[in-house]
Structure formats: C-alpha cells, structure tokens
Structure to design on (472 residues):
C-alpha cells in the first residue's frame, strides 16, 4: 500500500518495529500441499523444461538450480499482474505467517534505528526474555552473535535476533558508554492485536485494532467486556492504518455489531455473486454490542478493515468517520508447497452488503474528518543540517511544523524567525543551542508534532461528538 500515512503514526513507526503487517484478507485453509508436478501437463510446460535444461547446460558459469526454480515460480505469479498473488519463498512465507500470528518467537524487545544503530525503543514486554535479561530502554545493540549491526536494515537485525524458542542469542549492548554482552534465551512472545482505553469523562471506550490476527475476535470480546466493567456506555473502533488479516476473524467481529441475519460481506467472481456471510450466533457466540458505536478509518484501512467498516455502515447504519479507505476488494488463500514455501493467491473478490466493490477506490466514510495537511508531510531529513539561508519545500515543511508548535514561522525560507524559533526550541529541550536543525533537533520536532496530533486527534474528536449527541 502506498497511500499517505498520518504523520504522528509515521513517527510512531520510526520508533517501533512493526510486528503486524500484510495488507490483505486471508481465508483460513488447511496446510494442504500443492499438487505435484506430475499432475501438470508436460506439454504445457515443455518450454519451461527446455529452458531450464538449456540454461543448465549452456550458461557460461555455474547455475544455482534452486534459484532457477524459485525464479520460474515467482515469474508465474508475476505474470498474473495481481499485486496480491505472490510466490513466497521460505523467508517470505515465514514473515507472512508471523504477521498473521497471535505470537512470535523472539526476545520481546521493540527496536528502532538511531543514527544507524538498533536501540531498544520501549521498555521490554513484561515477563519477556528481554526483560528477564535486564535489557533497558535506550540500550544500543552493537552486535548480534558477534556480528556488527551498524549500517544494517532494521528488519534484518530483527530477524537475526528472532529465532526458535529455547535457543540463545548473544547481544553486545552499549549503555551509558559501557559495553557488555548479554545472552538471552528466546521465548514465545504474545502479540496483542488491539489496545484499549476509556475516557472516564465521556464514558467512551476506545478500541484500536492493529490487525485481524488469529485471536483478534476473542480479544475484542474481552476488551468490550472489560471496558463495560470500567463504565463504557459507547465505543469507538479505530481501524486506521489497519492492513487487514483473517476473514474468519472479521466475520466473527462484525457479527457482534449486527443483528442475526444481516449481511456482513458478499463474495463474487467477475460476473456473479457466489455467496454471502451473515451475522449469526454461530459466528459471535451470542455476544452482541448494543451500545452506540463509531468506526474510524483512513487511507491505510484495507481489506478486512474495509469489510468490517462496510458491514457496520450498510447493515447497521453505524457511522464511519475519517477518510476514504485503501480499496482492496479481493480475498486471498495461502497454500503450502510442502517445503516451507507458499503461494498467496487471489481466489475471489468481496462486495459490501449493498454489492459495492471497493477495489482501487475505497469505502467512503459516513462523516469525513481528517488531520491537518502537515500530518502527511514527509519527515525532516536526518542526513544533513538545515540552516539559515536555506530555501526549499523542506524548509516550508519545517516552518509549518514549528508553526503548529506555536512559533510564528511561515514560508519556504530558513530566515531569522525560523532561526529564533529553533534556538528557543533547542533551549526548551536542553540540547545544544545552534539555531540549526541537525538530526537530533529534527527528531525532537517530529516527536512534539506527533504528540500534538495525537492529543488533538480531529477524527477521534468527531467520533466523540457524534456519540455524545446520540446520547442526548
């Protein structure tokens, strides 16, 4: 997905390792092995076999046979010109499965890259191997099993630290300018797919759902029950930047908000509707949410998120607040070849209860609301210093950020007013006052802007307004 991400969520992503990813809606399948090549027509694959042998016999240097096969498999899915149908090698398949799982095996520490060095970005998960080993916030990880981390991609470092439960990994840590090694035994780390909080003043329970993984429906039911005990009389379901997940989970979750018999989603081929899923006791176990509800969406809400929002919008007349969603209207299955590689393949499209196909256009919210424009600006550069006399769109963005923080800065020129604002900002942050924007100053400006956007979340505020009015 390449639609815009709100700035405050982008900044959060800079200081967190994304555990949940994917961007799809997946049908659960048995891990059935794919059909063997003996079942394929040899005539149809004659050219493939001929090319394979020709390359092996005549290419000017030694050929990796496995690389040829993997390339051929990837080429077949690429030829479909479907971004959601992909051949997944072992590593990619593992990554997808982890992204949809409710747990992973590792140490339980969230990392960020700070000037090229991985750093512990949050206190380790309580009870995790990282916490038991004494890792602390801001610990720098210089080496993993004696391999330097400087300059490596964060995802590569994370994958190296992760590993099978019960195995050891040795990290070289720098803390307060001291270096030491810590050996940690990996364990199973649960992944919470949602977060909750209650506004005691309005009695609104807010539930932010990051993805639809293996246990999200169960987590949602428990969250609603807990929030009710805390006094919640209405709910906000936040699906912003939620890329999707398992179809069975979104069906169970949507059913909780609909009356039995109401349509959740319909399934179709190019020319006809094949069937539909309806709310029922079989899906939700008889657990229903009768309180007023509002759903938040944005351009990062995709696939399963769109199914949920469309079901509540069209079947239950529940307000959907935010911006147009991503627009992914297809369903994928994941099938195993038997050697840890997989194929993720589109098998049908899904339609809203009113038989609208949101693919490539998105679901329109009931009520439009958005962050200010600067929420979608790109981050400030960290590889160069911005200073007086500079003139560019980047400086215009800088001045807008500063203006949002209360400084009287405008225009695309780094002028006296900009310099004065930077000096004041640096003094308040107790960092070296230079009047120039280096990497440290840029990060602190972005964090303050992100915090302000979170504290003045216009989309959430609109939901509060709607729910408050519904009680009057």
């Amino acid at each position: 997905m390449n639609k815009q991400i709100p700035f405050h969520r982008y900044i959060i992503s800079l200081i967190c390792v994304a555990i949940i990813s994917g961007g799809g809606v997946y049908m659960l399948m048995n891990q059935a092995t794919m059909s063997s090549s003996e079942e394929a027509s040899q005539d149809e694959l004659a050219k493939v076999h001929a090319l394979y042998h020709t390359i092996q016999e005549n290419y000017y240097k030694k050929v990796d046979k496995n690389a040829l096969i993997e390339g051929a498999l990837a080429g077949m899915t690429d030829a479909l010109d479907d971004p959601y149908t992909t051949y997944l090698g072992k590593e990619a398949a593992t990554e997808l499965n982890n992204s949809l799982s409710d747990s992973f095996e590792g140490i339980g520490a969230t990392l960020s890259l700070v000037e090229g060095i991985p750093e512990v970005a949050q206190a380790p998960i309580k009870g995790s191997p990282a916490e038991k080993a004494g890792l602390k916030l801001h610990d720098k990880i210089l080496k993993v099993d004696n391999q330097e981390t400087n300059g490596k991609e964060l995802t590569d470092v994370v994958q190296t630290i992760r590993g099978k439960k019960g195995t050891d990994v040795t990290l070289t840590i720098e803390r307060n300018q001291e270096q030491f090694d810590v050996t940690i035994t990996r364990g199973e780390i649960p992944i919470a797919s949602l977060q909750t909080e209650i506004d005691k003043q309005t009695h609104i329970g807010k539930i932010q759902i990051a993805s639809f993984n293996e246990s999200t429906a169960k987590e949602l039911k428990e969250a609603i029950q807990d929030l009710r005990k805390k006094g919640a009389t209405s709910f906000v379901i936040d699906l912003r930047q939620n890329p999707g997940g398992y179809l069975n989970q979104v069906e169970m979750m949507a059913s909780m908000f609909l009356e039995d018999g109401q349509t959740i989603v319909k399934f179709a081929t190019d020319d006809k509707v094949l069937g539909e899923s309806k709310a029922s006791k079989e899906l939700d176990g008889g657990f229903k949410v009768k309180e007023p509800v509002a759903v938040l969406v944005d351009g990062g809400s995709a696939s399963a998120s769109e199914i949920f929002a469309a079901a509540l919008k069209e079947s239950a007349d529940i307000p959907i607040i935010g911006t147009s969603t991503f627009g992914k209207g297809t369903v994928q299955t994941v099938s195993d070849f038997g050697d840890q590689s997989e194929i993720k393949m589109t098998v049908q499209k899904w339609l809203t209860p009113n038989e609208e196909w949101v693919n490539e256009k998105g679901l329109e919210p009931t009520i439009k609301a958005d962050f200010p424009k600067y929420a979608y600006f790109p981050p400030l550069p960290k590889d160069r210093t911005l200073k007086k006399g500079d003139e560019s769109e980047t400086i215009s963005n800088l001045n807008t950020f500063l203006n949002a923080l209360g400084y009287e800065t405008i225009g695309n020129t780094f002028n006296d007013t900009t310099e004065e604002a930077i000096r004041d900002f640096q003094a308040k942050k107790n960092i070296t006052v230079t009047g120039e924007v280096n990497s440290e100053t840029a990060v602190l400006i972005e964090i303050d802007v992100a915090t302000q956007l979170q504290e003045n979340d216009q989309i959430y505020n609109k939901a509060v307004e709607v729910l408050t009015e519904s009680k009057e």
In short: Residues 439-455 form the longest helix (17 residues). The longest strand covers residues 342-351. The chain has three domains: 103-189, 194-371, 385-455. The CA atoms of residues 142 and 172 lie 5 Å apart.
